[in-house]
């Protein structure tokens, strides 16, 4: 019965870690949580941490801060202000 307390503590820590890391990295929260359940929170942590960070470069032309692609999704310009070549 005493063993249930550390299990709850580890589970809460794993959920919080998954929430935190899924915001910063390219992994969704359900997938991060599933990884922690299927493997163990310790192995799952290393799998999640090995995912690349989200680094939206944003767009300085229209202020779209969430842009992650080479060409902005809103105004279609890249970092140099060149418009996406269309038609090809
Ligand atoms: Zn833009």
Can you describe what's shown?
The chain folds into 2 domains: 46 residues, no CATH class; 33 residues, no CATH class. It is rod-shaped and about 65 Å long. The chain is built from 3 helices and no strands. The model has no long low-confidence stretch (mean pLDDT 87). The longest helix has 21 residues. The site of zinc ion has 8 residues, from loops. Zinc ion (ZN) binds next to loops.
What coarse outline follows from CA principal-axis ratios?
rod-shaped
Q: List the ions, cofactors and other small molecules found in this model.
A: zinc ion
Query: Helix share of residues?
Result: 40-55%
Order of helices and strands: HHH
Termini separation (Å)?
Answer: 66 Å
Topology of this structure?
Elements: H1 4-24, H2 29-38, H3 41-49
Helix pairs in contact: 1-2, 1-3, 2-3
The structure holds zinc ion (ZN).
Zinc ion (ZN) is lined by residues 59, 61-62, 64, 72, 74-75, 77.
């Amino acid at each position: 019965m005493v063993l249930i307390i550390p299990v709850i503590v580890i589970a809460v820590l794993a959920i919080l870690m998954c929430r935190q890391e899924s915001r910063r990295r390219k992994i969704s929260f359900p997938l991060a949580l599933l990884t922690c359940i299927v493997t163990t929170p310790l192995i799952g942590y290393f799998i999640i941490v090995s995912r690349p960070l989200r680094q939206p470069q944003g767009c300085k032309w229209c202020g779209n801060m969430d842009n992650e692609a080479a060409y902005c999704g809103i105004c279609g310009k890249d970092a140099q202000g060149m418009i996406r070549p269309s038609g090809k």
